[in-house]
């Protein structure tokens, strides 16, 4: 049963989360949002929000020289960008104040299943205590993005209230039926970590989007040693994609960023997004010269709300004891703020993409699409549209192709870190599209690209080789120089750290192909990670957060492909041509390879 202390802690956290929004609120709006949110939490209202709209959007054909074909709008030379919304939009988005939609609709039994459906697929199954159970797959919806500090604060407050209500429901259930048996002690003992609360969390993140959803996606790649199983399973839902912006809100962003005449540069624009992610959504379009392009459009208010979003997430995590103490949440949040700020700057991403295009121009097996500058801005990025098979679909192809793609992915990872010292750190499988015709991998999405200092890369290469060679003393020395160890660790921590390094170095230990299909690296690292989490004395260096995300993504991709990769040969080729020492300050080009 939940204790009064825990309830008080959650209420205190909720009050802190709502504080910023309340201080900015207009009383009328606050009362309206509070009443609707409270009724949702209590289960008094169910299902989707609706309103009666007797007005039908009017289209003046003399003002709009375009024709609609489904979601695709075709433009003529005289067209403007002031495109009317679809008729269904009024029903899907009845209230301009998106904050009232932040609390998940409750049903009488306390679940929030209105936005989820059962999927009998192993790709959406959660493994808890060794049992594979069917999880939920979220049905994407079209909702306005909460773009003001107040609407986003209300969203977090609604989430906190929903979690508190769910905790009380679960506590009452346990009083009546007893505590469930589970090997996952945290799940068994904490009524907060219920399936309904996990769904509430995932649903709220998908509705909020922005930094909140991005943090959820980052956490979703962790394992049960860091994140409890029910929350981990729910966070997996957020990787399926966010809600979509309604058409009128999307037009407002395009008008503000590209000018009201943006459609004059296009032959057509598809309002159905190809993808909807944490920071923005991507649309297909065709320019006047017939070029197919991908237009990435940032959600309004996302860039300005990074600081407050992360602070609100931190408060929720702190007051619900969701994250273990040795995760060093303050350090993780600081790094997340910096990374998200870079990702929200599409002008910086355009520069990153151009830089990668230059670096990889003469490298066989890779292609980076070009940027369309006159359709790009700080919040809109337009690039050449490229096609290909995502990594998880390459896993269905023949062995020769899987081995080739696995080798190229690992080659690219080593090249980025040790040759360019400039890495695209987002391991999302959809960022790597394999073109079977040209046997080339099309690379997209460079918002998470960053540089690494020469001294860090020097020592990291020494440590990787030491891990591959099972050289304990060098692993310890380099780990201390890099900041992974303080020198005062216990024998338990030191041994776990060394063994984890050896496990990661295993693919590079021997010449010949390493079979990622028969490896148990992830399980071994998970077991050792749980020990290190309990005993470590210092957070990892700042560079490690993004770097290890990318390295683990490369390993997981090779495991997914069941690829056989000559890892040691790739590493030694880099090591034997590497120049240790002071950084010359020059940006490397393809001639350095």
UniProtKB/TrEMBL annotation:
GO molecular function: ATP binding; transferase activity
Sequence intervals crossing the membrane: none
Annotated InterPro entries: ABC1_dom, ADCK3_dom, Atypical_kinase_ADCK, Kinase-like_dom_sf
Pfam family, one: ABC1
CDD domains (UniProt xref): ABC1_ADCK3 (cd13970)
SUPFAM superfamilies according to UniProt: Protein kinase-like (PK-like)
Every ABC1 atypical kinase-like domain range: 238-479
Domain of life: Eukaryota
Chain residue ranges for the region called Disordered: 78-98
UniProt KW keywords: ATP-binding, Nucleotide-binding, Transferase
Swiss-Prot/TrEMBL GO biological process terms: ubiquinone biosynthetic process
Entry's family note: Belongs to the protein kinase superfamily. ADCK protein kinase family.
Stored PANTHER family: COENZYME Q8, PTHR43851
Name under which the protein is recorded: Protein ABC transporter 1, mitochondrial
Species this chain originates from: Sesamum alatum
